[in-house]
Amino acid sequence: MIFLQDPGVTPNTDGLPGLEALRHMVGALQPFGLVVCVAVLIVSAAAWALGSINGNAGYASKGKFGFLVALGATILISSANALVRFFSGIQIG
Questions:
Q1: How high does pLDDT run on average in the chain?
Q2: For the packed helices 57-78 and 80-88, what is the interaxial angle rounded to 10 degrees?
Q3: Quick check: 92 and 81 in contact, CB under 8 A?
Q4: Which residues of the chain have pLDDT under 50?
Q5: Which pick of 10, 23, 49, 83 has the fewest CB atoms within 10 Å?
Q6: Given this model, what pLDDT does residue 53 score?
Q7: What is the dihedral of CA 10, 14, 17, 22, to 10 degrees?
Q8: How high is the pLDDT of residue 23?
Q9: Is 31 exposed, middle or buried (CB count within 10 Å of its CB: 0-12, 13-18, 19+)?
Q10: What's this model's pTM, rounded to 2 decimal places?
Q11: Is-contact 48 25, C-beta < 8 A?
Q12: Is the Cα torsion angle 17, 23, 28, 34 positive or negative in sign?
């Protein structure tokens, strides 16, 4: 039987300087990621629609795939804080 040892390491927000600046920068990147996802959603939806209208299954398929990937990325970016908080049990912010 394998016994797991607790290494005694806990999160320390005072260990290194600059953690607050890093949090601020990551928080500022989140809106940029969402804006890029919205742009990709629009372009992919247009490719999907034009591919469907013109009967080009390849373009329609690529547009649909891009739309779904951008939608998934939007959901993940939007819920990143909640996901980290839920799976780690660490209070963020």
A1: 87
A2: 60
A3: yes
A4: none
A5: 10
A6: 95
A7: 70
A8: 86
A9: exposed
A10: 0.72
A11: no
A12: positive
Q: Which residue has the tokens 């649909």?
A: 64
CA distance 21 to 29: 12
Q: Residue 33: CA atoms inside 13 Å, Cβ hemisphere, count? A: 16
Cα 80 vs. chain centroid, distance in angstroms?
A: 6
Where in the chain are the domains? 29-88
For residue 54, which phi and psi values (nearest 5 degrees)?
-85, 0
- pLDDT tens-digit series, residues 54-75: 999 999 999 999 999 999 999 9
| pLDDT of 69 | 97
Residue whose tokens read 């034009």: 50
